[in-house]
Structures are given as C-alpha cells and as structure tokens.
Amino acid sequence: xxxxxxxxxxxxxxxxxxxxxxxxIAFGLIDILFGLYAHRGDATFAFSVSGAGVHxxxxxxxxxxxxxxxxxxxxxxxLLRAFxxxxxxxxxxxxxxxxxxxxxxxxxxxxxGSAIPLNVVNxxxxxxxxxxxxxxxxxxxxxxxxxxxxxxxxxxxxxxxAFTAAVIASVAGLWLGVVTGSLAGGLLGSLLAVFAxxxxxxxxxxxxxxxxxxxxxxxxxxxxILVTHPNLNTGLTFNPVKIPGLGDxxxxxxxxxxxxxxxxxxxxxxxxxxxxxxxxRWGLRVRAVGEHPTAADTVGIRVLATRYRNxxxxxxIAGIGGASLTVGSVGTFxxxxxxxxxxxxxAAMIFGRWTPLGATAAALLFGFTNSLQATLSTINVPVSxxxxxxxxxxxxxxxxxxLVGRVRAPAADGKPYVKA
Amino acid sequence: xxxxxxxxxxxxxxxxxxxHIDLTVEPGEIRALLGENGAGKTTLMNVLIGLVQxxxxxxRVDGKPVVIHSPKDAIAxxxxxxxxxxxxxxxxxxxxxxxxxxxxxxxxxxxDRRRARSEVRNLSERYGLQVDPDAYxxxxxxxxxxxVEIIKTLIREASVLILDEPTSVLxxxxxxxxxxxxxxxxxxxxxxxxxxxxLKEVQAIADTITIIRRGKVVGERPPTATDTELAALxxxxxxxxxxxxxxxxxxxxxxxxxxxxxxxxxxxxVVDDVSFQVRAGEILxxxxxxxxxxxxxxxxxxxxxxxxxxxxxxxxxxxxxxxxDRLRAGIGYIPEDRQEDGLVGDFSVADNMILDVYDRRPxxxxxxxxxxxxxxxxxxxxxxxxxxxxxxxxATQTLSGGNQQKVILAREIGREIKVLLASQPTRxxxxxxxxxxxxxxxxxxxQGVAVVIVSSELDEIYALADRIAVMYEGKxxxxxxxxxxxxxxxxxxxxxxxxxxxxxxxxxxxxxxxxTEKSGSSARSGPAAEAPADPPDDSAPGGPP
Amino acid sequence: MSEQQSGSPPxxxxxxxxxxxxxxxxxxxxxLDAVVKGSPTVVTILAFVAAVVLxxxxxxxxxxTVLHAWSQFFSAPGNAIAQAWDAAAAAYSAMFExxxxxxHTVSAAFHGGSVGAIFYPLSxxxxxxxxxxxxxxxxxxxxxxxxxxxxxSGQWVGGAIVATYLGFGISLPPVIHVIVxxxxxxxxxxxxxxxxGELKARTGAHEVIVTIMLNYIMYNFxxxxxxxxxxxxxxxxxxxxSPPVAASARLPHVGGPPPxxxxxxxxxxxAAAGVWWLxxxxxxxxxxxxxxxxxxxxxxxxxxxxxxWVLVMLIAxxxxxxxxAAVILGPVQSITFNSYGTxxxxxxxxxxxxxxxPVGVVLAALLFGALHAGGTAMEAATQVPSSLVQVLQGLIVLFxxxxxxxxxxxxLRAARAAGLEAVPKGWNT
Lengths: 420, 545, 429
Prior knowledge:
Chain A is mostly helical. Chain A has 16 helices and 5 strands.
C-alpha cells in the first residue's frame, strides 16, 4: 500500500531557500579562496580562433581581483536569495550566475600568471563536441521514459551505434554509416521494448543486461574482426561544416555554427523532441501514457503501441549519438568507447527533469566539466582534475535526494501496463 | 436517450457480481443505484463503459442493441463515466485532460491550446461547472477535479452520465454544488446514473432509486420512500449466524482511544475525533460501509499512520509508540488486506507464523533463529487451528483464503495479547472458515482480550459484537447494543437520522484517565432497549483469567 | 468490489497425459513443462545451451575461413558446415582446457611431468571466480531485501583503496597484516554502501541512480588518489598506479602439495557461507527477506523497513569491498586507475543467474569464472578473443529471462517462474 508507505516515512524537509542561499555563499567564499591562492599576475583569456575573419582581442584579467569581485558578487546573490522572494526565472538566473562566477574564478586561479592563455573558444567548442552524445542520449531517454519505460540501456545503444557507424562508414560511406548506426540503436531499443512491454521483465535489470551484451558483442567483433581487418575500421569522419554567415560571428560562430553535421542534427533533435513532447497532440498522448496509462486507455489511446513506438524512436536517436562518437569524432571504433557516457546521459535526463531542454542544459553542464578537465590537464594545476570530473555525479545525487526540489519521474515510469 | 440493460450477468470465478440485472433509464432521468460495497454496482457500470465484458445480457440505446467492447465503444454510444478514482493526469492542465484523445490541432499536429481552452470554457459556462482551463489538475480541490471529469464526458457528447460514488470525496458544500450541476444536466435532456450508498443524498437528488444487493436488483422506489424502507432493502435481513456465545463479562478498560484524528488527503480528516473504550472481555464491533475511515482507524491504532489524539493500552500511553512496540505491548492485528499486509505470500506457513515475533524467544536467541522451534510452533499451530496445508513449508500464497486467514489468526492469537484488532476478518472466506474465525474471536474475548472488529458485514457485527459503534465519514455516529434493529443500524451507516447527535455518545466526553462506569444515562436512543450486556458496576466478574 | 476466492493457483489447461501421445512429442512437452514450471536448474541449463549455440555461431561466422567456405556453400556444403563446426569446437575445447582440465597435463604427469599443472586450470577458474562470488553476494543480498545494487563496482573501489593503502602504508606481521587489510577492504566498501542506504532511507533517493553515480565518483576518486603523492601514488611514477602491497599482506596459496587453493577463494566461500547463514538462519536475514518480499507486511509486523535498507546496503557494500581487497591482495598487488574492470557488473549477472541465493551465486560465479579463465586460454590458443565470454554471459542471463517468452508462445498460465520477473519497479517506489 503505497499510501501507507508514504504516510510513514518521515522525509527530510529542508528549507530550500536557506540551502540555496547557503550554497551560493559557499561558492562565493571558494571564489575568494581562489583569489587568495592565485599567483600574482594576470590570467589571459583568448577568444580568437586561428583563421577567423574577425580577431577578437584577448582579455588580461588580474586574477585575484577578478576572483574577489566574483566571490563578492556570489555572496550578494546568496544574500538576495535568502531574504528576497524571487520568481522562478530569477532563481534559475542566480544559479547560472553563481556557477559562471565559480568557473571564471577557477580559471583565473588556474591561469594566473601563466604564459599560456586560456582559449575560451576552444573550451566551448570542446564542450559542444563532448555534449553531443550526451544530449542525444538524454533525448533518447526522455522519449522512452516519458512514455513510461525506463531506459538504462542508453550506454549500450551508444556503443552499438558507434560500432555500426564506424564499420559501415568504412565500407559504404559516411551517410550510410550514420543511418545504420541509428538503426543499430533502434534495434537495441526494440529488444528493450519487447522484453519490457511484452514479457514484463524488470526494466532496470533488462537495461543492465542489454548493456553487458552490447559491450560484449561490440568488443568481441572488434577484437575478432576489426583488429585483423582495419579496412573495416578506417576512421572516416565527417568534415566540419561551417554555416555561412552565422559561422563567422566572433566567438559564437566557431562554437555554435562550425562543427560536423552531428551538431546540427542535435539542434534539430532538441527542437523536435521538445516541441513534439510538449506542443503536439502526439506528445500529449505520449505523456498521458507515461503518467496515467489507465486514463489514457479510457479515452481510447493505445498504450502499448505508444510505448513500443517511443522506445524504438529513442533507440534510433541514441544510435545517432553513438555514431557521433565515431564518424563524428575520432573515427575509429575502440572497445567500450562509450565509457559511461550513456550513464551520464541518464543522469542528465534526470537532472533535467525529463524535459529535452532541461536535459540539454544538464548535458551541456556535464560536457563542460569534461572539457574543462581536459583543458586544465594541459597546464599545471595544483588540484587534481579528477575532482572536477566528479562534479556532475555529485550534483545528480544531490538532485535525486530531493535537496534541490522534487525530482519527479513520469508517474507510471517503469511500471508495465497490464489491462485489468 | 433511453438506456436499457437486460439480464446483465457477470461472474468472477465463482463469485456472481451481477445476477441478471435489468435496468432502464429514461432520458432526462436521474437514476440512483443504491447498494453496499460489493453489491455489484461498480461491476455493472464497468460493463456499461466497456472495461468489463458481461457473460450474458444485452444493452440497448434508444431501442437499438449496442455492443460495448471497449471504452471507445462506450464513448461512441454516448455513455460517459465519472470514476470513483478519477481518470485524470495530475500533471496536465484541465484543458489537456478534457481534450485528451480529441485534441484540437493546428497544422502538423501542433496543439491548438486556444481552441481547447475555449471549448472547455464554453462547456463550463453552459453547465455552470466553474473550472480554469489552465489550472493543473493536481492543484485543484477534489470537487473541482470532479467537475473536470464531468466536462470530459460532456465534451464527448455523452447522453448518459454515470457518477460512481461521486460524493465520497466531497464536502457537503461541494455535494450541493454537484447536485445543482446534475439538475442542470438533467434539464438539458441527459440521463444520469448516480451510484451511492448514502441514503440522504439519494433521496435528495434521484427521480427513481434502484436498490442492488448481492448482485441482484431487489427493488425500485421513488425518492419519497422512507429511510427505513430503503435501508432495509439495502442491507437486507441479517442471517442469524449461530455463534453460541455466553454473555460478555467485561472487566477493566483495556483500550482507551481519545480524540483520535487522522488527516486526510483531501483536507477533511479521514478519522475525525474518534473516541471509544474497549474493556477486557468484550467485543466492540465497528460497523459501517467501507471507506468511511475504518481502515485508517485500524492503521492509526497500530501506529502505521500518523494521528493526533491519544491511545492508551492498560493505562500506558502508546500514542507515539512504533508499530513494533505496540505489537509487543500486546496488540494483535488482523489486517484488512491479508495478502498485502498480513502475509508474505512467498514465505512458508512456518515463517509467516512468526512474522512479528521472529526475533524473540523461543524462535531466536540473539540473532540466530531457532529453526526447529519455528517449525514445532508452526506444526502445533497448524494442528490447533486446523490449517489445511500439505506442510508447514508450503508458501502461503497457495493456501485458500480461509486457511491464509487462519495462519494470521494463529499468529496473532498465539501470542499473549491484550487487544485484538480485526479488520474485515472474514472477507472472502467460505462459511466454514467464517464460523471458525468467529469461534476463535469469541474465545479470545472469553479469555479476557479486548476485541475490536471492523466489519462491513452486518451479519458478522450482529453475531459477534457486544457493543456496536457505527462509523460514517470518519466519525462515530452512534453506539448501540446488538439488540438494535437493522433499520436503525442501516440508517446510522448511511448517514441517516440519528447521526451525530451530541449526548448520545457517552464515550466521547470521557477524559483519558477516567476509567469510570458507563452509568445508565441516556446513552442509547432509538427503539433498542437497554441491554444487560453493559455491567453497571465496577466489581464485575470476568476480565482476564 | 469483486471478490475472488484466493484458492490454489488455477490449473493450467490440462494436456492429455504424455502416454497417450507419441514419445517424441511427450519428450518436448516434458522439457517445455519443466521450463514453464520454471525449475531453475532446467532453465539455467537451457539458457547455457542456447548461449553456447549462439556463441558458437558467432565464433564460426566471424572466422574468415569459415565465411570463405560458406561463400561456396552450394558447391561444398559439407565443407562449409565442417569448417563452422571446427571453428566453434576448437574455441570451446580450448576454453574447456583452460578452465577445467587439459588432458595433456594428465598424460604428461604420468610421464614425470608436474602434477600441479593438472590443477592449474581449475585453480585459475577458482581465482577468477573469487571476486565474482563476492560481488555476486553483494548484489544478491541487496536484491533479497528489495534493493538493486548496481554500485558493486564503486564499492569494490572503496574497498580496494583501503586495502591497498593498508597493504603498503603500514607494516604488520604477516597473517595479521592480511586480516587487517581484508577488514579494511570490507569497511571501505561498507561506507559506500551505507551512503546509498542512508540516502534511500532518509530521502527516498532511488538506489539505482545513487549507486551508478557513486560508481563514477569512486572511479574518479581512485584516479585522484593515484595521482596524489601522499595518497596512493607510487613514488617516482607518473602513471596512475599504486605501490604494490607488502609481501606480508598478500593472500597466500593454501594447501600442501597440489592441489593448492587461493586463500582468496576460501575467503569468498566463507563469505558465501556467512551470507547463507545470515539470510536463512538469522533474525537479520529474516527481516531482510521479509522487507524484500513484502514491505507492507513487514511494516504491519512491526519491522523497520528503512533500517533494514541501511543495514543491507552496508553489508552489500562491505562484500563488494572485500572483493576489491581480495583482488588487490591476491593476483594483482597494485591498484591502477581501471583495476575495477567489470567486477561490479559481472556481480550483477552472477546474482541474476544465481537467483540471488548464496549457493546459486557460488555456482554461477564458478561458471562465469570458468568462462573467464577459459576465455583467456581460448584467446591464446585459437585467436578467438576473450571478449566472447562477455557475450556468453549476457546471453545466458538474457535467456534466463526467457521463460515468459516461452510461456507466452504457448499461452500457458504463469507458474512461479525462476526468471527475472521480479516485481517490476519504477523510479517512484
């Protein structure tokens, strides 16, 4: 009796306002610490990319001063949050600003007095590239879970997508590579769909098992065939495509409009899934199935068919994400190259509250930390970059523990629909 | 439109839920379906809206036979239902819920929210059903949610609306509102089938009342029929189950409940300032239609539900004790849902026998279980309680309902308890098992246990109770002796006259420390005479042996 | 409300007795009945057979010689099939020889060769099975209490970190050192598990998410420690590898002249015995099982469900941590940034195959351990990559979920199945 359970458990009730304010102030204090520990000198932020039309001058920022200023600003935001009632947009803006200030302070500290400038554009480009599979994976997760099926197998879908794309591209060209990569993801999705919807296997177990299978199968085929036949793993990749006009805008251009086709596919997917789920009749029905399948059934919506369709579509999207790992990036397939990205995508989806836009924001955040870690590892930073890599995971735990508000999955997520 | 049901019959296994039911609803009529829980009303309605297929019978709309295989067919036949448990998506807006399945769209399938809003507003204004199309359903009070459900049926142009126990979640004010809406809909030519167990309401709103009992139609009456007549039809004459029972010899007060209140989800409390006392050696039967707070009362007494007020066990305050401590203090509990809360289906009979005493001697010393002691205990209990099972190692889910209940009984009665809380103890059992359970309960009472039985079966209440309390909408509406007439009891159960009169509830005003006598005050009203079951003096014999 | 007599399970549609039909039909019917009734052994064996067959096909048709022969199937069908068979058979026999017994060593022993070599494959199997037993127990015990422990991997890391540090960082006399390291390993994993349990009990956070996230937190934490001089970094090394543990902390081989057994394996068996005792003979285990089978009934019987969750996750974490310790103190001796390998996820498949019972876990771990040990040998002998083992593992577990599939095909009523049909749960439990 779930009402019984709900009635008994005494939840941790936290005054969210104080928690948020306290966190902002804490960040501000850390910023000031960065300022204290920074070396004498300026941190240089470069904004140009070689070969760009317009040359944007670099910023030489006095590292400590900037860190202090940003720290003070964060503390101010924290105080505002504690004592002033704010509408939701202001709250989100606060979080964004505090995080931004934190990152800038961190960078000031890391690059203070360094001869090497930090190329912000490269950092952001790296973010975009690293985020593509995360965003696509998270979108795939949204598609599945919004209709009520848990998809732990995003990792496996990315992997089979990467493998298939690399191999087919080597044989039949890049475009066929992407298409077959997508289909491979869809195939894994249909396995998930059949076992979860028809045979009522527990969806979490199923997802884990499918991941094991995907890893094993691609690993085996890699070792057995690709290693001895490198012609099947030639590492072909798409060339970046610069959008005329938009791609020449300083700073923004190289980041958002100068990349492989996968970035543009991702833009399209974000829009399609967001609009689809929340502004179309199709999406309304999908969400009804995920929240209250019996109610949907009583108005004539076909619950099971909807779930099958969504899970397979999700798989197709994840397959594209997988393809981006090979033909959109490094080219050759290596064993287990998805290395946990599927799980990060799952976390992004949860962190983003099962909405495409939210998931995208979360995925970008996670991608940014990865990119930042890669950048910092090229210079001598006193603190290990691994700590930075932990951040997305810690954040997700905090989110799931309800410390930043209720994270609520679609109500019928994970529960198979059996007609009474 | 005219709706005719002829000979509708539905079996669920050996249970006959609907037994050749005939029902005709004329256009522009409000027809009430009156009956207790389990009478078959909801099954009948599920047949009508396509969620259940009847074994026999025919449905005609305006004279023409229709076949209803699915909710879609029902919608096509212009039949709409407002379920007791709403079919609304909480995180959607009113407009989204109402238009789900018939969403107005612009190009490319994009939702036309403006048109949806205006459609909802039109219906809302036309029928006086005030709703805000953009409000999220989960934020709305229940009465408004119900209006949304009604609009859902109207937008599908339902000519027959079925309302299944609509007032069970409404306040009196909201109920009046609902009646007003129903009258408007009737004026517009629609027919309404109004399912309820509440007499007053049915008399207030219906044009004709059809009474259903145990799957059959037992009568049709106009709303001018008397309360007593309707109540009698609804509950029927009690079958006197012969339980040979000595008169009770109650001792001291064992269980003292004062002002127990359990908050409900819908704002009004689901257990509302309940007070009563039970003495050693007496059985208090709590009668009432299911859903009036009895379940929550039992859970609160056991500590499974947070509640305010006080619960004293032999003078000891257990109001804030954990369920474990209350069980240890001597409360025995037979839960209403034996499979969900009483037993672990996968576990063996032996393991289930010790579910609440597994970590005590002799079944365990320290953290080690004594398997042979567990086994021996099970073997002897199985024999003592005549549990039909191949062995004590079989999983309880393979046992019949009666035997499952025996296992629970054996477990609870087998330890030393001072209070036995039994909730619907013979639900779903065969006659033999019922008899067995009743005998054991009386035995416990004779050994000095204070017994509280919650039952919606009046036969059982009459057979077992030494005193009867009736619950309606979370309150106790009256205390009676078993000599009370069925009609009066039915009235109290259905919220009829006699409910809530102050001064007729002697226990309500007791302070928690006073363990005094019930004097022969005007404790009981009505035709029932004072029964000698209530000993007037302190030094009564009986009590714990 | 419709009331159903809760009687004995409805009888499945009765088939005519086998004697009345042709013998071959009755045999297949018997098999199907066994599968449908879900006798776990039968299901596992069938799953194994099915996986082996599919694996064999995979081996054969990823072999270029075989593919070449099949391209000329119509001219030489016999050859094509023979080639396929040979490829699979060669791989599988190499696997067998690497995991169980290599006949050559037996005959060699008779000719004065080493007797110990006969037992080498088995001891390799036992060695590979050791961490699987422990992580399998970790997942299994949590499962019995109703929780998914996807975090055995992170808990493994937690234990391994502590064990490694105690291994090289302090010095103690030989036997005591090992014991202290093992206990430390248990504690390290237990802390991680405890976090998961507490979060679930206090905030309702779903353990699947928390454990997956903790896995990655621990992986990164490990790398962090390996890169930090005062922590786990090997002096003078910039690679992410720790100093090796002292000799006094290493797990020895036990037993006289061959056969010898890895102490780690014995510890794993002891742990399995301990978990068995805990689950079936102790009050704590009784509580775990009740909470896992029916939390409502557990509450009504006065059990504290949340407390049970915390305790079981603590124990589960400890077991996985012990696995980490066993690996570092045993075959590996130093910890690197990816030492955790697939132990955690293998533990999940072992627990699933072993139906979450300690005995089943040991047997499943031995099976998968044999596959691992055999896989290495197979790769050395026939160039069939050892990653085939993971495919076999996944297929076996997937087929164990197959009874519903077969049942559905024949539209037979559900008997109590041994499949993966645990009550499907969602995020919002």
